[in-house]
Write a structure and sequence with these properties.
The mean pLDDT is 97. This protein has one domain: 434 Repressor (Amino-terminal Domain). The chain is 67% helix and 0% strand. By secondary structure, the chain is mainly alpha-helical. The relative contact order is 0.21. The chain is globular, with a radius of gyration of 10 Å. This is Transcriptional regulator with XRE-family HTH domain. Keywords: DNA-binding, Transcription, Transcription regulation. InterPro entries: Cro/C1-type_HTH, Lambda_DNA-bd_dom_sf, TransReg_Diox_bact_type. Pfam families: HTH_3.
Length: 67
Amino acid sequence: MDIRQRLASNLRRLRGQHGWSQEDYADRAGIHRTYVSDIERAARNPTITIVEKLAVPFGVSASDLIA
């Protein structure tokens, strides 16, 4: 599994644990919902800045999202 697939899997898992829709999560992370969708499908290669934004709503580190 490559790093984009690990990120996608971790995002879907954490988002599901919190009971958030992609739109809810995107609002919390401050990014567009379609971008979240693309990341969760491993169709995007997000910057480290975006990975950090994705981590904040979950209260985890960026490295936790790609581990």
